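Q: Structure tokens for this one, please.
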Amino acid sequence: MGHGGDVIAELTTDHEEVAELFTDIEELPSGHPRRKNLVDRVTIELVRHSVAEEAYLYPAVREHVPSGGALADKELEEHAAAERTMKELEGCDADDPRFDGLVRQLMAEIREHVADEEANLFPRLRAACSAQTLHELGDKVRQAKKTAPTRPHPAAPDQPPANKLLAPGVGLVDRLRDMMSGRGKDT
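A: Here is the predicted structure, written as tokens:
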């Protein structure tokens, strides 16, 4: 899918891509080795997406949306839970007895998070920000995803300024590890 536009269009496109990957996973039988590859791809996309949201979306929500601090905190808690699940999945192969349950858990966490963002957070942000601000945020989110980590790091900071300072370096190391291992490549 094409990316571009304002921050809401950018993040909604990410949501759609992850939903498609979830469908691909669900269509394969339990234990199928390709399920692990697809989960790795989902993890890469979710981590990049989350890092960008934490760096730019949630600070904007805090700044522009009435009661945005509480809303951003709730979203960060949901990210943390999903990141812990992804970290557990990172150590599992498709035939691991825990794999299917963790995949179902991750899908449920992400589907609930996406539904809430799209029904609650995005409309409130659109109402509170100018089109120019939303487009500027979209550009920042796209840039952040280019250098973001690709693996879950539950202990990493999730709020500026620390997350903005550390994410590019961690992202570089993650991408090198992925390149060396072939992780996230469709086989």
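A few notes: Helices lie at 7-27, 33-64, 68-90, 99-128, 131-147, 162-181. The longest helix spans residues 33-64.
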